[in-house]
């Protein structure tokens, strides 16, 4: 895939040519690369963030939406290959966790193993529940969005913006609700899970189920907040992701605008396990 195509899929607001590792981030359903805009200021100079822009979202609005997660992961894998001249890690929230997992599987098949994958706000692949939100009428989809609280009310009150939100949200619900991973699908990369303590979409058991999705062991973290806690307070999330890239107690290296080392993350470790 061309460099131009890679830049279409993976957005890097702050290139760091001397960076030692690349962090590939996959947004939640209905989201865009802008979900990670605040992260750049919280990262040290040796971590370069590339955030995925899904087809049919944000400035890719005129492109067809992808209706199959396997197809999306195929394309994301191809787009990511030129970025793998350095060690890399993956982070995905909600639908993004499944997209990151399936992309990581494809990258591993090509010989590229991530330093770590962080799966946030999503049950383990083999525990994903089928759903019917994507089959409901507009009112049903809007009710689900309102329940999770991921869309500002003023956006939903604007007719044109509401139509855009409904279009992408319905398509992304379809991706998650029709997803089925292949039997025996596991990663060789270690996995960390993130769960908001008030998240109605993810139980502790469902987060712990990620231990069956890797042969390299798992860490399970909990945070204050609901399903969208990473947006409400990205600081502890970023701090924990950085810990996963370097190991406990080891500095991330370089300097950062946000100076996260001066603030203690509010995440707690619930369990640590190896398959």
Automatic annotation (TrEMBL):
Q: Which domain of life is it from?
A: Bacteria
Thioesterase domain mapped to chain residues: 22-232
Please list the residue ranges that the record marks as compositionally biased, kind Gly residues.
246-256
Per the record, the GO terms for biological process are: lipid biosynthetic process
Which stretch is the leader sequence?
Answer: none
Query: What InterPro entries is this protein classified in?
Result: AB_hydrolase_fold, TEII, Thioesterase
Query: Which ranges of the sequence are coiled-coil?
Result: none
Q: Region Disordered: start and end of each range?
A: 243-275
Q: Where is the composition biased (Polar residues)?
A: 265-275
The UniProt family comment states:
Belongs to the thioesterase family.
Q: What is this protein called?
A: Putative type II thioesterase
Q: Which organism is it from?
A: Streptomyces virginiae
- Could you read off the lineage of the organism from its UniProt record? Bacteria, Bacillati, Actinomycetota, Actinomycetes, Kitasatosporales
């Amino acid at each position: 895939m061309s460099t131009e195509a890679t830049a279409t899929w993976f957005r890097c607001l702050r290139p760091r040519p001397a960076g030692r590792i690349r962090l590939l981030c996959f947004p939640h359903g209905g989201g865009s690369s802008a979900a990670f805009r605040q992260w750049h200021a919280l990262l040290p100079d040796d971590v370069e963030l590339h955030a995925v822009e899904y087809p049919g979202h944000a400035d890719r609005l005129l492109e067809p939406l992808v209706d199959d997660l396997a197809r999306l992961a195929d394309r994301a894998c191809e787009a990511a290959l030129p970025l793998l001249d350095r060690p890399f890690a993956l982070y995905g929230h909600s639908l993004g966790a499944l997209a990151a997992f399936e992309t990581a599987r494809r990258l591993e098949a090509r010989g590229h193993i991530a330093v770590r994958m962080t799966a946030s706000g999503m049950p383990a692949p083999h525990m994903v529940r089928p759903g019917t939100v994507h089959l409901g009428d507009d009112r049903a989809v809007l009710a689900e969005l309102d329940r999770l609280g991921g869309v500002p009310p003023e956006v939903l009150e604007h007719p044109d913006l509401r139509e855009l939100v409904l279009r992408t949200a319905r398509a992304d619900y379809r991706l998650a609700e029709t997803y089925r991973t292949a039997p025996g699908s596991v990663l060789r990369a270690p996995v960390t899970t993130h769960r908001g303590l008030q998240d109605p979409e993810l139980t502790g058991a469902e987060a712990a189920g990620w231990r069956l999705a890797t042969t390299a062991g798992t860490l399970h973290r909990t945070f204050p907040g609901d399903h969208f806690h990473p947006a409400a307070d990205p600081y502890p999330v970023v701090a924990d992701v950085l810990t996963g890239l370097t190991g406990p107690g080891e500095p991330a290296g370089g300097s950062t605008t946000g100076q996260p080392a001066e603030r203690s993350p509010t995440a707690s470790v619930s369990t640590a396990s190896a398959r």
